[in-house]
């Protein structure tokens, strides 16, 4: 089965991201707006059991922290993806790094750029118009992050939460 690890921001941030995603993201209905901590990876049940134990330990090590979204950016020219840029604060970087050590699959394709995708797979002309328009808007959000989720992919391509891990909670 295919798994991934992500942070879901608050409803207000998700609502803002979804206001764009409904129009500009063909994967809008597959997963809510999120910050990816671990790209999708294949794992069997016993591997997931081991990783859940690791994820509980990781959650124990972190306290809630604030993220700051302060602009719209893009991965162009690599892809026509537009996103809300999340400032790469140390807690977020440390959390990401922990998902790429030990028993976790080593499937990191790109450098970590914390973000929330709002548009992707756009034709070049539409990409230019949309990015130009969104870039001029003021984007400022602060959001408290106090958990992350282990997700699994369903047969129809959508993602569902397998387990949620709350920071600072004493998992045994």
TrEMBL record:
A motif (HXTX 2) lies at residues 115-118. It is an enzyme of class 3 (hydrolase). Gene3D superfamilies: Cyclic phosphodiesterase. Keywords: Hydrolase, Ligase. SUPFAM superfamilies: LigT-like. The keyword tRNA-binding does not apply. It holds the Pfam family 2_5_RNA_ligase2. A motif (HXTX 1) lies at residues 34-37. GO terms for molecular function: ligase activity. InterPro entries: 2H_phosphoesterase_YjcG-like, Cyclic_Pdiesterase, YjcG. Its EC number is 3.1.-.-. The active site is at 34 (proton donor), 115 (proton acceptor). Belongs to the 2H phosphoesterase superfamily. YjcG family. NCBIfam families: PRK13679.1. This is Putative phosphoesterase J2Z83_001164.
């Amino acid at each position: 089965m295919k798994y991934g690890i992500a942070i879901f921001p608050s409803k207000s941030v998700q609502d803002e991201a979804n206001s764009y995603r409904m129009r500009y993201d063909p994967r809008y209905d597959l997963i809510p707006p999120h910050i990816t901590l671990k790209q999708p990876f294949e794992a069997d049940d016993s591997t997931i059991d081991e990783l859940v134990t690791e994820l509980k330990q990781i959650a124990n090590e972190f306290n809630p922290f604030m993220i700051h979204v302060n602009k719209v950016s893009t991965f162009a020219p690599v892809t026509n993806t537009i996103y809300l840029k999340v400032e790469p604060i140390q807690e977020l970087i440390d959390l990401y790094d922990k998902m790429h050590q030990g028993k976790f699959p080593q499937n990191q394709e790109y450098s970590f750029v914390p973000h929330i995708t709002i548009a992707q797979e756009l034709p070049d002309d539409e990409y230019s118009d949309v990015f130009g328009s969104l870039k001029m808007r003021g984007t400022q959000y602060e959001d408290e992050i106090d958990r992350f989720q282990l997700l699994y992919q369903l047969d129809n391509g959508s993602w569902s939460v397998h387990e949620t891990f709350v920071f600072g909670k004493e998992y045994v």
